[in-house]
Amino acid sequence: MILLLSGPAAAGKTTICETLTSKHGFAAIKSSRHLRTLVQPPEREVTREILQEIGDRLDVETDFNWLVTDVAVPQIDAQQDQKFWFVDSVRKPEQIHRFSEAFPGKVLHCHATAPDSVLRSRMLARDGSNGSFSYEKAYAEHVAHPNEVSARSLGDVATLVIDTSRNDALFACDAIMKGFHELCREK
Length: 187
Fold this sequence. Notes:
Elements: E1 2-6, H1 13-24, E2 27-28, H2 32-36, H3 48-62, H4 66-78, E3 85-87, H5 93-102, E4 107-113, H6 116-127, H7 133-144, H8 146-153, E5 160-163, H9 169-186
Parallel strand pairs: 1-3, 1-4, 2-3, 4-5
Helix pairs in contact: 1-9
């Protein structure tokens, strides 16, 4: 069973995934290790922006299949006794479609969200910034990035949407596990 978790930055995806790991034994399907191997030249500093650029390029080159074929399938094949997996940050609807095609009846898409004022406050706290104009400009640029715009829109196609300003990670995990039980019942 694979959980695809989407949502804006600072929506609480990492906290939900940490709770799923500790309470239910989920394992992460991580793309960052794969993306880091593709940074050219290798001594170049690896930033979130560079990894996003590489992921965007791979999306185009592979018709959004790289995350499934080059990342998820090898990890799942290497740990066949692992029952629950998560991808903690799908960003595009095509990624969801590719997972659903590759793992029919085994994919649950959950979207974590919160009001923009909450997200802004969480990012401010995360960055340790003092709320300066430069932070506000950086936040506005971040929110306008195509990957963030796309990630924020995925609530429209999610099986489950959780407002993390109203519900904690334990509530989210319970809802996700109920979603998996319903998915199993539908088979």
